[in-house]
């Protein structure tokens, strides 16, 4: 091991503090804005720390009284949850059989490569026909319509993750079960899928994060509280004539909370999922 | 079991995914190609066939060339900065220090923050009247008067790039860190015994391990930066004076704000072609890097 001089040790700790400050300062400021009284945020010089913490905006946004700022926010929260849930379930339902098939039958792997290559397509290349198609089916401004469109993003990604997951489960285990007389679907149900449960969970969380984050299609295909998602609601707040910046910050904190918690809890799984493609080259 | 049956069974399991992909990606893409040769509006009847007019008009317009330059600037500068800062952060996180595990856990935060929340947060920080950046710089006596960081063509793009970098460099750092931890200890030890300085050690011992994963991160980040829409739409909508208008914003304006579906489709396909060329060139580069690193 390299022996380190005291100067180097101090340098490393200084850099670590700087990095921590860069990461934390904007996030901390978002939270501080959300609990600072409006007068503090408009003060010059700016008051960096609220005189008294004010959590009333959280109450405002989470209230469901009609025609309030809260009603718009809570309905978009519900829409985001519904759409992310439906799109994730549908993506997994497509990804699990497809991922297994490609993993066990490499001869059809090119079809998955084609599906994954669609990642390069900018969403604007699909937006006009999707808009016209949804309009034709009466699915504009509709949570089902948006969940369907989200499959363009979720399905290729989850299939790729599931395929990598199945790759790491030895096919000999499946073969052994079949020799013992289990049929294919019995083998998958009893042997393979339980072993793949962690990968399924990771894929599902990735899919939820992707759906939760999506903005472009939601902006185009939704127009009111029936289907608007959180990202659109927040962009509305940020771009509108809201005079209380703390309220915008509060909406941001609430929208960030679920993905940030998922990120912290699932840290290891998410990083290995993100880097597996990278490290394998 | 015969291999024909195995292959047929695999195709059957693949079928639902392929059907959905054809419905939500394949068909819209083909339809976009068809639309791009018409003067169709977003609402109303199909429009008339106009040949390559949309393409020639688009490619010769000053809007397009200016937007292409803006997009390239955004992509090149933000991805380059993310790579450099990300690798530096990874080298730091690979050292021994107190609180390393916590700092590594914190790196996931910017990545997990939704893009729109990130954009909103930085929009508040850059606010011309009450923003934290103006307050901090004034209180440190670095500027005399509050400035409109997103409202001036000279600073808006830089301000956007900073916000984009902050969100994305931690991902590069985590990918690079995973690669660094795969560098065998005895190799770094041997290079020390051989008397290699820090720079040579990084260049010849560590970089070969980083090259493959970093190339993949570079490809993915560049493609995403080239397609960028969300962060710009929320922070500037392409303004001021179109100084931050990227290709995806231009397509949105053409197809949805001005409702010119045909001409928007042609522009969307030009963007698709550019991204594809970029991706193919990169893929060749990745293969080369992986080959030389192995």
From TrEMBL, chain A:
User: Which UniProt keywords are present, listed alphabetically?
Assistant: Cell membrane, Membrane, Transmembrane, Transmembrane helix, Transport
Query: Could you tell me which species this protein originates from?
Result: Mesorhizobium jarvisii
Q: Which InterPro entries match?
A: BP-dep_ABC_trans_perm, MetI-like, MetI-like_sf
> What subcellular compartments does it reside in?
Cell membrane
- Transmembrane stretches, start-end: 7-32, 83-102, 109-131, 143-162, 190-212, 245-266
Gene Ontology CC annotations of this record: plasma membrane
What is the name of the protein in this document?
A: Carbohydrate ABC transporter permease
Read off the Pfam families from this record.
Answer: BPD_transp_1 (PF00528)
Give the membrane topology, semicolon-separated if more than one: Multi-pass membrane protein
Principal location class: membrane
Keyword Cell membrane on this protein? yes
What family does the database annotate?
Belongs to the binding-protein-dependent transport system permease family.
TrEMBL record, chain B:
Q: Which parts pass through the membrane?
A: 12-30, 68-93, 105-125, 156-183, 204-223, 265-285
What Pfam families does the entry give?
Answer: BPD_transp_1
| One Gene Ontology CC term in the entry | plasma membrane
Q: How does it sit in the membrane?
A: Multi-pass membrane protein
Q: Which GO terms describe its biological process?
A: transmembrane transport
UniProt keyword list = Cell membrane, Membrane, Transmembrane, Transmembrane helix, Transport
Where does it primarily localize? membrane
Q: Which Gene3D superfamilies match?
A: MetI-like
Going by the entry's taxonomy, the superkingdom of the source organism is recorded as Bacteria
- Supply the SUPFAM superfamilies for this chain: MetI-like
As for subcellular location, the record says: Cell membrane
As for family, the record states: Belongs to the binding-protein-dependent transport system permease family.
State what protein this is by name: Sugar ABC transporter permease
User: Could you read off the lineage of the organism from its UniProt record?
Assistant: Bacteria, Pseudomonadati, Pseudomonadota, Alphaproteobacteria, Hyphomicrobiales
